[in-house]
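Example record used in the benchmark description.
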Amino acid sequence: MLAAFDVAGLTSDGGVPLVRSVDDRLGLTASLVELLVDSLDPRYVAYSALDLLRQRVYSIIAR
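Model output (structure tokens):
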């Protein structure tokens, strides 16, 4: 038996790059984030609401 873990083109990302590409083209998360009310003081925010929303949506998709 031979096990090789260095196969080119093999990935474990679950298709998240494809989802990100489709999201960028269609603007799905960008449209959704416009519906959210963000009352945080921008001086104390490290990441935009869009970045946080995308991170959450993509992590759910990757499961």
